[in-house]
Amino acid sequence: MEGVYFIPGTGTLLDCDEAPVANLDGTGWFDNGTVTIQTAGCQEAIPGDVFPACALDWVFTRDDENLNDVTIIVDNEYRIDGRLCGDQLHLRGGWWLPVEDEDVNYCTYEDDSAEEVGIMAAGNVLTYAPADGQAPAQLTGTLVVQGSCGAEYDVTFTQK
Questions:
Q1: pLDDT at residue number 38
Q2: In 3-state terms, the chain is what percent helix, strand and coil (to 5)?
């Protein structure tokens, strides 16, 4: 995957013998949620500040050898490794996490509205919920991320 970056965090993929509840191969998702700053170190943000996150494209490809494993490409630029154990998706890696520009109250996707973050072991699991008659499939949870400061990303991924 030339030109795709891997940002390490402390999140790990657990050993898993449980069959995945879904085949995520070839699926596309977008994220939506809020980022809450947890530690000092972020430019123009302090602990407790909350920002709406800007949606990015997440594309899943399943590993042919281990059906639990997926490779996720975020915004055509970052790789995250995943392992779906039952309905729990464990993540390892990181990505560019843009937040809404406070000056204009929408996503500008400018370099200064985002930071590269790694997914930390303290929060690297999402829960899969299948589509029903009224809603598409979703992955939900709170990811703990670390860049120049620590934050929690309360997120819902919705299948396209």
A1: 98
A2: 5, 50, 45
